[in-house]
Predict the structure of Zinc-ribbon domain-containing protein.
Amino acid sequence: MKCISCSKEIKDGSVFCEFCGSQQLEVSLLDESKEISKGEDGVYRWVYELNMWTNPGILITLLKVVLLATAFPTLLVSLLELFERGFSEAIEAFVTVGGIAGGIMVGLAIIAYIIIAVLNGGKYCVAFEMDEKGIRHIQMDKQFKRSQVLSMITVLAGALANNPTAMGAGLLANAKKTSYSQFSKVKNIKAKRNLNIIYVNESFERNQIYVSREDFNSVYDYIAKRCKKANIK
């Protein structure tokens, strides 16, 4: 493993770095977690089952995308009105078009979210893989429940100890969609503890990391200390 401060290679499980003397606190906390497992390949893995009815994290992201998509045509119409008819007409067009288009799009987004939530049994099952270089968000197929993914991680970790990369391959084989954030390219990190979400954003990649309340600070610190160029909030 690498030191969290000087990035030099040190022995796995080290409490202090032999080179700079810094304490590797968050590593020991992750190793002691009941929900996060560490494979023979040094990769931390865990699964999170989000309740789509009580946690609005996905819905908030969806509404942001919808409103952003609505803003462009609204501004375009307003600019046309500004050049053709004047400022007051442009403001009126902005309010009218924005209100109607925004209302319709938000309504459709909420209906779509409800349908997806019903089809998925109100649950969003996602697994994560995290190492020194980055973190991968793995959306599992809807038929996989949290207990099944946990069993998959446990069985693969035990049976494939001599081939650790096979565990990650096993998860990816059952994935519906994946997204990866490379720590060296991350520009922004934002924590939403009330939603159990850590937003990890690159220039053209947006990632949402879900983690239990018990492990939230450990995972957040692990990510933050490795994203040297990130603006941390």
Summary: The chain has three domains: 1-32, 34-52+123-232, 57-119. DSSP finds six helices and nine strands in the chain.
